[in-house]
Hints:
heterodimer, A: mainly alpha, MetI-like fold, about 0% strand, B: about 300 residues, 2 strands
Amino acid sequence: MNRNLFRALLYVALALCSVVMLTPLVWLVSACLKKPDDLFSYLFFPPVGDLSLRNFRDLFTEIQFMRFLMNSCFVSGVTVVVQLFFASLGGFALAKYEFRGKKPIMILMLATMMIPGQVMLGPLYELIYHLGFMDSYLGLIVPGCVSVFGIFLFRQSMLQIPDDLLEAGRIDGCSEFGLYWNVALPVSRPMIGAFCLISFMGTWNSFLWPQIVLHNSQRFTLPIALNQMVGLYSQKYGVLMAGTFLSILPVVILFFILQKEFISGLTAGAVKG
Amino acid sequence: MIGSRRFFRWQHRNAPYLFVAPFVAVFCVFGLYPLVKSLWLSFYITSGPKSRVFVGLGNFGFLLADPDFHKAVWNTAVFAFFSVFLQLPLSLGLALLLNRKRLRARNFFRLVFFSPHLVGMVFVAVIFMVIFQPQFGLLNRVLNALFRTPLDTKWLGNRGLVMPALVLTSLWMYVGFNMIYFLAALQAVNQDLYDAAKVDGANAWQQFRHVTLPSIKPVAVFVVVLSTIGSFQLFELPYLLLGNSGGPENAGLTVVMYLYQNGFETGDLGYASAIGWTLAIVVLVVSLVQMKLTGAWKRGD
Lengths: 273, 301
């Protein structure tokens, strides 16, 4: 009896926590679907008859939301692919080859991981300015295309590839790049999934650097555009919430595709065994 | 045929260099160089990317006497304190609840608790900016219905409430994220240890204290250090919530926000670099102290 009571309390506690965690998200969805005048009349969803997609329509007609969405997709997509390629290729070299300079490079990279990235904002800004990358996609993509976290993630997972397997490939006449492409990459598939999501979330949500680089609204990514909308559309909360909802959606979709890999990749560095 | 054999040997010899080259090249130009340069730049007062005056350690001396910087450090430290001492125990608590044997719908609850993390910080800030509104905001209406608190509480307009609002929002964002780490650590604990403890007559608290805690300690230290470092870099949340400013009487000014204001609103990249390096040193010292303390704790055990 006592044990059953305990179990019941456990589920009640978990359910309460779930309600608290989900409330802001449910509220967000409800806010998108209300008529502009109704936003504060109903706490959550209005009666079915008063539901409306007006906010989404305004989002695409009054604001160039499509443009911001495409900017974000382009910048994040390119960054993720380049990051993935550089980090996995470099990780393969660090995991499976001995070469001069390997130790110093790894120590240098580990050392920079300890230093908060904001330290370099000033000089990076100067560099981008002198390269002529200000206010361009290049200014976002180029400095963002290496991930030290990523190269170590891939090194870690590729350490498990048996040397005999690579040697056999060499005897069969496979080039070194072929070994990377045909052996190392397929073996690290779960890591690729995890890394793609982590890296995508990082770029998609990035605010500080784009805020520094971008000036022309034609090139705004979603976080920058939303920050500007907060100032300009402070009375139209519904439109703002619809924009926020659509900005979150791509990450959520990607998460559900890569969910399994993501959780294991997230904890791979922390939990051994 | 001979040419292709030579190519084969050549690519075999040089493969590792070619493989790390793209990464290392970009890393050196856009990672290492700005990092070193920022140390150099912190000895200058600059105005935009073109003019600068050498001031030696003047920037750091000025920081020590700068009341706004003190305010920023204090706010950031308070935020980090709550992240570690309020948020992480709650994360561990949730993980312990979810780790119970024969729990139904574990994956569902895990997903629900984790879900806020999918919302980027900028978007969280936009959502909570509306939730925190006086009169109409969700938080005030719920609190009013439950506890009869006044509807016009200005969470973001009252200097005493800005920090609670920030802590509350980040609690919502990160409690489930950190729970994932704790849960993974709990699931990796050797079950035999619990059985042995039970044979020795250990009660639930003693099992937690002497089996669970020591087993998850490496992960716990990792999470503590990680969330401290993350908290010290807080920027987007207060910046957006408080309308691109530090809020009433700078109650929400953080170190990175102060860096941004000085470097990119005032245009003094030298002073911004000095703030950055001060932040780096503080973060490094705090993480080392944390690792040291937790290491000492093990020896005393």
